[in-house]
Amino acid sequence: MQPIQIIDWGFDIFMIEGYDLGMAGRTGIYVIEAEELTLVETGPSPSVPYILEGLKERGYAPEDVKNVIVTHIHLDHAGGAGLLCQSCPDARVVVHPRGARHLADPSRLIEGAKMVYGDQFASLFDPVLPIDPARILIREDGDTLDIGKGHLLQFINSPGHAAHHFSIFDPVSKGIFTGDTAGIYYQQTEEYGFQFCLPSTSPNQFDPDAMRNSIARFETIGPERLFFGHFGMMDNPAEAYRQVLDGLDRFIDTASKAFKEGEGAKGVEERLKNHYHSYLLAQGIPQKHGLFTILNLDLEVSAMGIEHYWNKNDESK
Q1: How many other CB atoms sit within 10 Å of the CB of residue 191?
Q2: Organism's domain of life (predicted)?
């Protein structure tokens, strides 16, 4: 195992580094220290040992966990939920209504992830275990979950990245746990004096109009901070929205040009890499910085999602 890393955000919230894809700074698991100890996200199953050790470092036993909330059921957010439930006997898993059946039977999730990650699937995600339906709690848009100490969590239907996605507003922190709807926050850029976000447009339910509408809804709610699945907390929501919406426009425009010239997802990926590598290098990020490894993976998967959306909607015709 790699070193246990915990970041305390205040407001009864801390984050455990999940080392998703074997990388630091990729996926965070949030813990809300309320009367009902509550996790937001699990990461994939290889993150579960880090969760359990992180909880132990903060003085918690697995039996203390009462709620595990997953913003959506993609394996980098919820893939470890089944394994974690084996260690946390009193935990229920809270999920969007359209995701519940896939937690009970993850076979289609596994099949979809294997299509994206191929031979790497086993090392990145195994095991993906089913969850007893009796331990699954569905939350609809506008529903709440009172976990104590003022944390009356409000669930917000937030499609765009995925149709089965909700986000969670916490009144104590005045923050939204955004999953992937408000994009990816590359917090590694903070040490270079700027903030950098991009949309996450992975297959196969990416919908740019729904993503824009969800972000508009976040703006209406008016949080003071955003807690990203990837990765960390940003206390300037307006800047996050601006960057993600600008990035979304760039993604779509780049895809349009690539597809009209007969290129596929790989062409979109390379065009986006060229643009964002140049931008980040100009901002002073060293060429060998690990940020580029994470960014390249994200752009590869996002380009696949754009192509899937494009083909489904005949946008290229």
Answers
A1: 10
A2: Bacteria
Interval 111-140: pLDDT, tens: 988 887 888 899 999 999 999 999 999 999
pLDDT, one tens digit per residue, over 269-312 is 999 999 999 999 999 999 999 999 999 999 999 999 999 999 98
pTM of this prediction exceeds 0.85: yes
Architecture of domain 6-244: 4-Layer Sandwich (3.60)
Q: From CA 5, how far away is CA 10, in angstroms rounded?
A: 16
Asked if 118 contacts 161 with a C-beta cutoff of 8 angstroms, the reply is no
Q: Are 31 and 8 in contact (CB under 8 A)?
A: no
Q: What is the token pair recorded at 170?
A: 């916490």
